[in-house]
Design goal:
It is a single chain. This protein is an alpha+beta fold. The protein has one domain. The protein is about 15% helix and about 30% strand. The chain is built from one helix and six strands, in the order H-E-E-E-E-E-E. Strands 1-4-5 form a three-stranded antiparallel sheet. The chain has a three-stranded antiparallel sheet with strand order 2-3-6, covered by helices on one side.
Length: about 80
């Protein structure tokens, strides 16, 4: 959420999440990271991560990482862009 800005790309936020996991010694991601903004945040299994998130719209993040033999799941975090 700290990395989000107005008119930010979904792929940028996905990259920030993945960097955060890997820089904290995650072995790998549990599954492909999903970042969906605006109208895309309501789509189940959205995985393109290629749109610009409109100002003042919801963003849904679903991601997880593997640490040792444990796969964590962030689940769905929804927040509003500033």
């Amino acid at each position: 959420m700290v990395a989000s800005r107005q008119n930010q790309g979904e792929n940028y936020l996905a990259s920030i999440f993945e960097f955060g996991c890997k820089s904290r010694n995650a072995s790998r991601l549990s599954y492909p990271t999903v970042v969906a903004g605006g109208k895309n945040s309501t789509l189940i299994n959205y995985n393109l991560n290629n749109q610009i998130i409109p100002d003042n719209k919801l963003v849904m993040v679903d991601g997880g990482a593997q640490f040792g033999h444990y796969n964590c799941d962030l689940g769905n975090v929804v927040y509003n862009t500033l």
